[in-house]
Specification:
With 210 residues, the protein is an alpha/beta fold. It has helices at 35-45, 59-62, 65-72, 80-84, 163-175, 196-202, and strands at residues 2-8, 13-19, 25-29, 48-53, 76-78, 95-96, 102-105, 108-114, 123-127, 132-133, 136-137, 140-145, 148-149, 152-153, 184-188, 194-195. Strand 2 and strand 3 (25-29) form a beta hairpin.
Length: 210
Amino acid sequence: MIFKKLVVGSLATNCYIFGSKKTSELVIIDPGGNADEIIKSIEELGGKPVAVLLTHGHFDHTTKVSRISRHYQIPLMYNKKEYEFGTFTQKEADRWLKEGDEINIGEMVLHTLETPGHSPGSLCFYSTDVQEFNGKRIDGILFSGDLIFQGSVGRSDFQGGNQNLLFSSIKNKIMNNKELTDNFIICSGHMGLTTIGEERAHNMFRKYFL
């Protein structure tokens, strides 16, 4: 697996580089700043970018979308509701993503979940093709955007946000999803990495989504 987390932009957003070590193909998730650092990291990894993915359209996750997609001449993919509701209007998607869509990265697959609440078209991406992370055995990896964080959850007081939907998304798409075990790494849009099991046990808002 190719994996790198970069903390970018004025709001310390997590931008992820994720891909296949076998084929060197990778995606860039939420390029919210520091384009030069993102490009340098990809060069150091020897990667071949195939797409830019957005978990949602807020500015701190999207500032360098155009620069990165132009630099590599690769498609931009996100949910159409972000464009329709005006959350992100900088650039239409080359591919609109919806529930169940798959993004192929070499021999690896990212699966798409629609998880509204933080914004109308928020998405999560997960892969079961990753069995090891930092020397530890895992069942997979989840890129959660601003849906759920280490010990907390995303805000729902922005335009298009909805707290009930946010908790419903966490409950139905993450916690009750039979493909997502407690041994999944959660890579969120801000703060540190965690696991589904840790959030099930310790998240301060867990009573609202369990």
